[in-house]
Every structure is written in structure tokens, then in C-alpha cells.
Amino acid sequence: MSDTQEQRNDGRRTVVRTVALTAATLALLGGVAGCAESKATPMDDQYAGNSGETEKSQEEQSQSGDSSGSGDSGSSDSGSSSDAKDTGNYKDGTYSINGQYGPVGEDSIDVHFTIKDQNVQTVEVIGHPFTSISKKHQTDFANAINGVVDGKPLKGLKVDKVAGASWTSDAFNKALDLCREQASVQQ
């Protein structure tokens, strides 16, 4: 065998080892972190969901125990902690939330909800995928979600798997919980 052929074979072995190691690492991460829950956090930008409230009223909310938690409740139970704060009466406005998901939280979506008259008027979803597979799921989800939630009452709204994107749908549901919490008018 010539030196060139031997170098080519060594290069192929190195590539095969690298691919095998990468696959093993991903399998391990998926097995260890596959139970990771999606989470949602308020975004701090012009859409930030305070609907024109003053800093003083926001301070009053935080002093009265109103928190914008990261959705620690179980992923299939959409309302255990938020139902206590959910009056079913919501302020009109735009609320922006970032939802993270995936085995190690590598994917995220920005969700901009426009609430009017207690209903979801429109939703805009902007994906931040980690892989090409995530990009496809996020794009399909973003293209389908308006037909699922636009015009629906915000109270109790939850989506099932939309456009085949189960993890994106879970992150969206966490964002819905946080939107209800932020928009809720305490009685």
C-alpha cells in the first residue's frame, strides 16, 4: 500500500472515530438531559408585555408576590401555579416571551402575543434553531400556529403538537402560561 493510500485510510478512520464519538456524546446528552423541561422567560424589549404600566405598578406587583417564574410546574399540567393568578381578565397589549427547549435548552423561540378583548388577536413566532431539524420544526410551527390560536380566548388556551413539533409546542404552552400571568388583571 502506498503512503498516499495509507494517509487516506488514516484520515477515514479519524473521521469515523470522530463521528462515532460525536454520536455517542449526543446519545449520552439525550439520555441524561432528555427529560429537560422547556421554560419561558419574559423578554426585555419594546414588546416586553408591560402594556404601558408604570415602573411603580410593576414594583407593586413584585412586592405583592407576583413572580414571573420559569414554569416549574409539570409540563403536561399547564395551569397548576398560573391558575391561582389567572383571573381570566387580561390587559390588552403585546407580550413577548422567550421559550427554550431541547435536551440541553439549545433551541428557543421568541413568541409575541397580541391580546385584545381577552383573546389572542395574533401571534408571531421567531425561531432560533440549533440544528436544521429544529429549523424545519420551528418554521412549520410558526407557519401553522396562527390558524390554531388566533381569535381564541387566552384563558385556558393550550396547544397540542402543532405541525409535528412537540417540543416547540411545549415551549409555546409555557409561553402561553407566562403571557396569562403577565396580562392578568388582579381583581
TrEMBL record:
It comes from the Bacteria. The lineage of its organism: Bacteria, Bacillati, Actinomycetota, Actinomycetes, Bifidobacteriales. It holds the Pfam family FMN_bind. Residues 108-177 form the FMN-binding domain. InterPro entries: FMN-bd (IPR007329), TAT_signal (IPR006311). GO terms for cellular component: membrane. This is FMN-binding protein. GO terms for molecular function: FMN binding.
